[in-house]
Structure formats: C-alpha cells, structure tokens
Amino acid sequence: MAECDAGYYCRVCAEYVDGIVDSEIYLRYVLRDIPFAELAGMPEAHIWCNGNLAQYIVDPAFGKTVRVDDDQDKARQDPQTRALMEKVITLAWQRLQGLPDSGLDVTEYPMPDMVSPHEMGESQLGSEKEDAAPRS
Ligand SMILES: [Zn+2]
Fold first, then answer.
1. What is the domain count for the chain?
2. Ligand 1: centre distance to CA 53 (Å)
3. All residues with CB under 5 Å from ion ligand 1
4. Do 1 and 18 contact (CB within 8 A), yes or no?
5. Can you give the pLDDT of all 136 residues of the chain as single tens digits?
6. Domain carrying residue 85
7. Is 55 among the domain residues?
C-alpha cells in the first residue's frame, strides 16, 4: 500500500483504515453493493466496525469479534438466507484479501456472477439453491 497523508479514517472508531483489505466500503464494492462511481465518495470504515455485515464472514483468518444490532443478528435469519449471506460475504471477503496482489484493475474487483445482499432476500434465493452446498 502506498503511504499517503490524506488517508482514510473509520467513520465508526476514527482509527486509520490500513488498506483495502480492511475496508468495509471495498468489501461492499466487491459485493457489488456500492457502484464504482460512488466508491470515492463513501465514508470509510473497518470491516469489523460494521458488525451487521462482518458477522457473515465465516473464516478463521478474519478472527474479529464484532458488535451486531439485535434486530440484525444473523441468528434471527432463516437458515437459508443466513447460509447464503455467509457464503457470499465470506467469498467476497476472501476475494478482497487477495486483490492488492492480484494485478486486477479496481474496476475488476467486484465479484462476477454473484447476487448482491440487496437481491438476496428476493427472487435470487430460488436460483441460488442448486449451487449451494447440500444440506441434510
Ligand atoms: Zn473502525
């Protein structure tokens, strides 16, 4: 990462966001939740400072305890929605970790062929079923 005086500070905890691998807005960009045109104007945050999003990252490498709003707790989600959210957001987070060394252009960062969180609760759930891991 380039060192830069005009860095970005987390809108939640006010600490420096040390690169895109920790960036909540880049994670949402990879998820296609934020369009490229709006990326530069979004207030920065650590991924773990948005607990409602970070709770869906199921990877020991993430290893952060996050605070989640009661009404957003994934324990309250129906199991199918929760499993899909965990799958997509974990994949996006894992993708994000490799992006700085990937050689990809920033416009190529968003995940291909994935549903965004906005779409998950709606019609996309049905078409995703075939790809999901089998459940007993
Ligand atoms: Zn923060």
1. 1
2. 13
3. 10, 12-13, 46, 49
4. yes
5. 444 445 689 999 999 999 999 999 999 999 999 999 999 889 999 999 999 999 999 999 999 989 999 999 999 999 999 999 999 999 999 999 999 999 999 999 999 865 555 555 544 444 444 444 555 5
6. 20-131
7. yes
Is residue 11, in this structure, part of any structural domain at all? no
Joined tokens for residue 82? 């929760």
- Residue 8 CA to ligand 1 centre (angstroms): 10
Residue 110 lies in a domain: yes
Centre of ligand 1 to C-alpha 27, Å, is 14
Cβ-based burial of 99 (10 A; exposed 0-12, middle 13-18, buried ≥19): middle
**Residue in this structure with the two tokens 């994670």, named with its chain if needed:** 27
Predicted TM-score (pTM) of the model is 0.78
Q: Does residue 73 lie in a domain region?
A: yes
